[in-house]
Structures are given as C-alpha cells and as structure tokens.
Amino acid sequence: MTIRVFMKPTFRMKRFIFLLIFFSILAPTALRAEMSDFEFYKKRGHSNKAWNDAVEAGFAAYDAKKCDEAMMNLKQAVAAQCQDALVYFKLAVCSEAAGTPYTALQYYQLAEEKLAKLSAPHRYQTDIYENYGRALFQSKRFDEAFPLLTRAAAIGSPSFGLYYMVGYLHAKKGNRAAALEFFEKALAQDSGQAPPPLLATVYRELAKSYFQNKDYEKSSAFVSKTLQINPNDAEATQLRTQISNIQTQQGIMKMIQNAEDQRSGGTTSPSYRPLPPAASKLPPLEGMPGKDPASPLGPNIPIK
Fold this sequence. Notes:
With 304 residues, the chain is mainly alpha-helical. The protein has 2 domains: 9-157, Tetratricopeptide repeat domain (Serine Threonine Protein Phosphatase 5, Tetratricopeptide repeat, Alpha Horseshoe), CATH 1.25.40; 178-254, Tetratricopeptide repeat domain (Serine Threonine Protein Phosphatase 5, Tetratricopeptide repeat, Alpha Horseshoe). The chain is 63% helix and 0% strand. It has helices at 14-25, 29-32, 37-44, 52-63, 67-79, 85-97, 101-115, 124-138, 142-155, 160-172, 176-188, 196-212, 216-229, 234-263. The chain is elongated and about 95 Å long.
C-alpha cells in the first residue's frame, strides 16, 4: 500500500485566516510606522475635503480592530470617489475578516494598482504580497496565489500561516523538498494561534515527507504528534502501521544478518588459530618422492 505524500485539498482555514488578520495585519499602527496611515494619506494619498473625515474615521476604527465601523466609513469615502491605495487595502483586509473573500480580492486588486503608483514607499507595498496571496489561497485560486506568497516568504515577515500556505502550494505542485522546508519553517515560528487541526495537518505532512525520505524515526515522531491532536486521523494511523511493519522487518533482517555473520566466522578474533591442513595436503619433504613410499613388507600388506 502506498502512502500519498501530500495533503488532500481540504483545510479548516476560516478561523486561522481570521486570527492571521487580527494578530498580524491589524497590529497597532504606532508599532509599524513612524507616520500614521492617515498622515501618509493626507500627504501622499488621494486626499480630498469631500471624504477626508470618512477616511480619518475609517482608519481610526481599523486601528481599533473595529472592522464593521471601518468598512462603513471607508465605503462612504469610496462612494464619494476616493481612490486611495490605503483605503482599498484596509477595505480588503476587513472584507477578509467579514468572510467575503471575493470582495476582498476586488479591493486587493485595486490596492495593488494604486500602491504601485505611490510617490513614497509604504509598508503596504510589501504587505500586499501576503495579503493578496492569502485571499487568493482562501478562494482556492492557488496558481495565482503561489507567486505572491512565495514573494512574501522571501521579503515579508515570517509567520506560521505564511510558511504553511507556501508549503501547501509546493506540496500541490509535487515539490516535496520545498514543501518539507516550508512546513519545518512554519513550525519554527510561533504557532500558538494556529488551530490544532491545522497544526495536525502540518505534522502529518511532515510525517509523510520523512516517510518518503525513509527517515522513519522522524516520521514516527511527527505521526505521534499528529495523533496526540487527532487520535482518529486515518492517514496518520495508516502511516504508523506501515512504519511499525518496516521497522519490524528491519529488525528481523538485522537478526538474520547477525546469525549469518556468526556462522561465517565474522571477524577473526586475536586468539583464533586456523587448523593445520590435512597430511595429504602437505608438500613432500626435501629429497623424498612426491608419492608415499612402498611398504617394505610388500605392496599388498598394509602398514599398521
């Protein structure tokens, strides 16, 4: 029976996406930039008295993690013809949090276009890779998500969620070594906010990858971690059985090999001395014929 190396396209991501947004993307602005987003918007963005108040209220609600209020105000600004990169980006993030990934994708597309045209650098120009990629990933548009998320992994802030998604996408493409690398990177990050089912998935995929690499000890360790979270995981249970069978066979083969080594003499010990050859195999003495001499009592009388 063959173990499939990578995960099926099923995942429990909604709560995880929600946590990703609120614990990383909606971090306090003061920790992420010297200039507040509203100040940046006023100086570099699509500022206008007709909608500045709505944008200011929306940004304040966003920083307070009040997405409903933020969306209400920022949509008012957009309805008044505001076409600002930061406004689109924050609307996209809040649309993700509201569970409307299709709407989020529309806003991310607009944000990406406007961010490329900013007259000064802004952190969202880097964040867009992970955010936009995550929304595409959540919508199962994996081919489009892949280049954005791999770019984010190369230049963005490392996180369990980002590395998990990149590992998953490499797995779908059959890039086993790359998938293994990113799953291991995911576990090296803070996984405290990761839901247990997702963590079990990473453990199981690492177990399967190590199994395919014939590293049965590491595979067994990750199988155990998987089953600690979900004792009913069918793939992990099957893998544990296969590892046990292989290790049993390896033990039997080792015993057989040891027995064969003992029968064949194995390594010669220092006290061992080989037996002398039979007398008939000895060379003749000097001056003697090569055959035994005839009996002095006649040819038919044996020597006793």
